[in-house]
Each structure stands twice: as C-alpha cells, then as structure tokens.
Amino acid sequence: MKKELTLKNKRQARNRKKIFILLLPIIIFAVLFVYYPFIKTIINSFSLVNAKGLIKGFAGLENYQYTYGRKDFLLALKHTLTIAVINVPITIIITIALALLANKRRKLSPVYELLFTLPMAVSMSAACMIFKSMFSPSVGFINYFFGLKLGWYESKETALAAILILTIWMGIGFNFLLMLSALRSIPDQIIEATEVDGISPIRRIFKVQIPLISPTIFFVLCTNLVLSMMTSAPMIIIMGVSSAASSTNTLMSMMFQSGFSSSDYGLAAVLSITAFSLTLGFTILSFVFEKKKVHYQ
Amino acid sequence: MADISLINIKKIYPLVAGAKKKRHAHQDESSTNLEKTERGVIAVQDFNIEIKDKEFVVLVGPSGCGKSTTLRMIAGLEEITGGELYIDGKIVNELDPKDRDIAMVFQNYALYPHMTVYDNMAFALKKRTSSKEEIDKKVREAADILGITDYLDRKPKNLSGGQRQRVAIGRAIVRNPKAMLMDEPLSNLDAKLRNQMRAELIQLRRKIDTTFVYVTHDQTEAMTLGDRIVVMKDGFIQQIGTPQEVFERPSNRFVAGFIGTPQMNFFEAFLEEKNGQFVVDLDGFKVPVIDEDNARMKKNKAKTGKIILGLRPELLSLENSDKYPAAQINVVEMMGTCAHLHLIYKEKDLVLVTQARDENHHLKMDYENGSLIHFSFLPQSMYIFDLETGNNLALSEVPRQ
Predict the structure, then answer these.
(1) Which domains does chain A have, with CATH numbers?
(2) Which of A:165-224 have CB within 8 Å of B?
(3) Of A195, A234, B305, B317, which one's alpha carbon is 20 to 30 angstroms from that of A64?
(4) What is the ipTM of this complex?
C-alpha cells in the first residue's frame, strides 16, 4: 500500500515537472512583457523618474497630483470616455443590424459576408492613412460626395467625430462576424416556432434572437470597451502634432506622447494606471450587467 | 378544429448549381431512392388525403420518405411546389404559417431557452389577446391539463425531457389552434418515457378536441395513436387506412414489413391454381388460399408462378411432425411471456414468436441452438405479394403502381 502511494507520488511529481516545463515559455513571456512592465509602471507612478527612465527617489502622490491637475489630462479623459460611450453602443447596434441582414442564407450570402468583414483585413495604420486622405479638405472623397468644405481632421470641432467614424468602421468586421455566427447558431426550429406562433419579426428580433445572442453581445461589449479605452493609433498617426491634436488626445495617446516623445515617465505611468483602473471598473460594471441580462444556454 | 385536404401535393427540392454535379457523381451511392428530375429531387408527390375535423392522422415511414416535408408544407414552413392545400375549406398554399392558425410541436421541443415555462406558453398569446387575466387563465388551464403547473417559473434547461415535451405541447394548445402538427415529438425521449408520453397523448387528445397530424418513424406510435395511418416511402403514399386495416390488409410488401413487430417474414413460394382454387406451395408444403382471398385474387387476375409469401411471426406455430417445413434455430430471444426464435430457413432469416411457457406454466427451455424444428401456418395468416411489384394480390382494389 505504502509502496503504491510513493509510486503514485513519484508519478505526480514527474507530471508536475512536465506541466511546468510545458508552461515555461508562456510564463517567461507573461512575466517579461506583462507582469514586469505592469509592476514597473506602478512603481514608476509613485517615483521620481528622470528622462532616461531611471528612478531617482520616492515621490509619493506627487505624480498623481501633477497629472490630475493638468488641463490636457482632463480633456484626454473626456475624449477617452466619449469614444468609449459612443463607440461601443454604435458598434453593437450596427453589427447586430448587419448580422440580421446577412443571417438568412442566400445565394449571395458569401458576398455580403465578405463585404462586411473586409475592414478586418485592413491594418490600423493603413486605415488611418486612407481615412486621412478621404477626409482631407481639398482632395477628400467625403467632402466631395456630400458637398462639404470641412477640414475634418484640421478642425477642433470635427476631429473627434472623424476619428470615431474611423474607430467604428475598423471594429465592424470582426464584431459582425461574431454576431453573425451567434445568430446562426440559434436552432432553426426556434425561429420556425416563432413563425408558427405568429410572432412578428420585430418581436422575434427583440424577444428571441437578441436575448439568445446576449453572451456574444456581452463579449463584444467587454472587448470593445477595453479597446475603446486604449484607442491611440488614429490620434498619433493622423493627428500627429497638428494644431487640432489636443482636441482628440486620449489617455493612451497622451501617454504615448509623454512617455516616448517628451520622456516624462512619471506622467506616462500615472496615465497608464488611470486608463487601467477605468477599464477595470468598466469591466466589473459590465459583469454586474451580465448577471442580470445575459442568458447562457 | 378544422379539416385539412391535401390534393396532389408535390415537393421538389431544387438542386443547387454546385450540388448538381456532385449529386450526379454520387447518384449510385445515394441512400434514398427519391426520384430526381431536371428541376430537382422530388421529396413528395401525388399526396392526396382528406383529413377530417378532429381526426388524428399519423404519417409514418422510414427516414427520407417525405413525411416531415409534408407536415412542414401543411405548417407553411416549406413551400408547396405543386398541388393544393386546404384548411377549413380555404386554400392556404400562399399563406404564411402565422395566418394558417396551426400549432406545431417540434422534435427537439424548440422552447425559448431564455424564457420561463409560463412565458414560453404566454409568448404567442400576448399578441392575440390583450388582457393579462385572459392570458393567465389560458396558460394555467393548459398547464393544468399537462400537469406542469409546478414548473411554470422554471426555465427549460431545468426541466427533464418529458417535462420539456409537455411544455412544447402546452405552448401549442394554449392558442387553441385549428390543427396540431407534431413532428416526431417523442423521439428524443428514452424508451420508458416514450411509452408513458404516448399514453398521455392519447389522454390529451380526449381533453383537447382538435385535428392532429402526427409524424413518426415508429410504427408502434402510429398504430396506437392514429385514427388513420398514412404509410409513406420515397415520397409516395403507400397506404392510407385505420391501424387495423394497415396491419391486416397491407397494400404491399413494404407496408406489411413496416407495420408490426417483429417484422413480417417473407419467402419465395409458388402459386398454383387448380379448378379455380389458388394454392400456395412453400417447398412442397401446400396451403390453399381462403375463399375470401381466393375470390379477390381471381378478380385481380393473379398469375400463377413465383410469388412472395408473407407470414407474421406471431402466427407461425411449432410442429412436431416432419411433414412441415423445417428450420434451424439460430438465436433464441427470451422476452418474458414469449420467446422470439430466430430461425434459418432456406439460408434466410425467419422469426417465430412462441409462448415461453407451456400449459402447466413451466418455462420451455428446450430451444437449443442449431437444432431443427418444424413450423406451420394457417391459411388465413398468409399474405401473398406479387414477386415484382410487391403488391398484395388479395387486396379488394388494385393498388397503384
């Protein structure tokens, strides 16, 4: 009996070793690129950091006071929240609508699906450049088409709106695909049951189809919320250091500029921590919402 | 509460451009014998039946015979390629399912998983009737009939298969539809529950007086539930009749083999005629055809020669004399009150059902594998089928080819 036990223990120990070895690569990766930077950023946010990124002493809450007192921080925070609050619901509504349109299998279905998912295949930087020229005041297609004379990215009033359009467009492809596959996984017989029961299409959509794809809607909500909070590429690539740049700055683009352009590591660290806390808060909020509204099969 | 007439109903599934080539390439391997034309695969054709008000009609047949397609055409979930469908005297070919005032119970229940049992049943009512009290009354009434009042607040995932099936039936009956369509409603249940639900369906039918069209591949369900049975194969109706008619006077070899368990035994035999009397010759064992069948066979101009003889396993009897045909015991299945003897006769399987106990109530255990036994049958238990067409030669009317 005892012998058996020790044998078992030996085997377990060997298994544990094997598991550890197999997990090692991802552990190294996570430690180097996720946990170490995360802890380093927290430490930086409470320290005096010089332009070379070296810690020169303890700063307490000084960095936070400095950052939160800045006017451009408040503006960046406002932009970040604006993007999140507008982008997420609009993306969800548009992708559900497109998925409902494409749901029924027709001869041309693959064509629609391809058209709707194509934005996925465009890289962020390429999309930024395309949108920049599309919204250009002189040669831009948008102004020509609508007969406008707006300098979309040059004017403080319209720059954020133009960036929102770009952000939403970029997200549609992938989220559409998620919504479509969720809609198509609803059993045909349930839809047929609504037909026989005489349920109108509107009621079917709101009372049957949307509740049944709520897990996917929740997933899209969470991921898009995080992505929106992290939006920075359009600001950096399109706006650069233009005169209207400050009208679109988000926490992330501000962090990028302070960290990599101005080498103000204390400020950058505080911005990162702030964005992280906000994202965490939103995610927790959405999980509260999930308990009430999301139905899992 | 309505009569339903199907006149020359036909369903063709059009071939998709890509699938056409593929199907032609695999034509020989195709498992079903459905007829294919330029326009597509014919799933149902020449379907004619008058379903009377409050009748319970069962469509039965092997998978791919077109029974579900027919039901779905009645429901309006499948387009009708040809023919006319009347509900309550009105042609409904072009009507949407919701305008036909029918209810359907699906094989996998198709309950709305995010709604409680109550909401599942009330959902379809909310549009039709405005008052909340009325809906509540109807739902509780239906729940009472089906014995699911205790589960009204539960969601489908917290119910057993039988309970879910009851909810699905409840959802159908609250609306008080003109007809109830049921697509293999019991086939997702285990054997014990299936028997129980079958009995409940018979009771339910007494409580709610409406027209039923019921699809199943299970001949027991068809026999026990139906006022009339429609036996289908390869898109064609093989026979329409009461359970008794279909069992006792099958129109052809397919129906005879499909209805009844264990299956009917079929042998090749010879038909002879002497002075106007038909005699079946099974390997030298000669049995005269009974007068009633004899007259019909004469009327049908039955030809002598090779025929297919059909014999139900329950109507074969064991004999001790070697003047009767002999067979070898292969497998003995003890079923409790009776035993199924699987015999080999002329290199073919033959099933014989015999009592498991003798007159003194002692178990008969003397069936030894490999031993020879003799069997016989009475003239009135013979079914005689045409060798080529498989049609029952003793049928009062000549069946369709």
Answers:
(1) 2-63 (no CATH), 67-293 (1.10.3720.10)
(2) 187, 189-190, 192-193, 195-200, 203, 207-208, 211-212, 214
(3) A234
(4) 0.81
